[in-house]
Design goal:
The protein has 5 helices and no strands. By secondary structure, the chain is mainly α.
Length: 99
């Protein structure tokens, strides 16, 4: 980090919180206007509400629990077999990561 940037950061940290936010918004606007990669920055500073996010990603209502059943589970394999396999794989992976 350059000394000039460190001085700017120190000055920004000395500002009250609302002025820090205003500074960030001004920098964001400057970047948007002057650099093409910052076009999406405005949406970052204007977050959507939970209701808007939920409306954009609707979850279908489950009316029949059988619609959630999967057909790829091996016939002779129990959930306990799967958990044992998963535990074994995790142990193998841990041994390969840790010395």
């Amino acid at each position: 980090m350059t000394q000039q940037l460190q001085m700017v950061l120190e000055a920004a940290r000395a500002l009250p919180p609302l002025e820090q936010i205003e500074l960030i918004q001004e920098l964001s606007q400057f970047l948007q206007e002057n650099y093409p990669f910052a076009v999406n920055a405005a949406t970052f500073w204007s977050p959507r509400s939970l209701a808007e996010i939920a409306d954009a990603h609707p979850v279908p209502e489950v009316k029949d629990i059988l619609t959630l059943a999967v057909d790829f589970w091996p016939k002779g394999e129990s959930p306990d077999d799967f958990i044992a396999f998963l535990t074994e794989r995790r142990q193998i992976e841990i041994k390969t990561i840790l010395p």
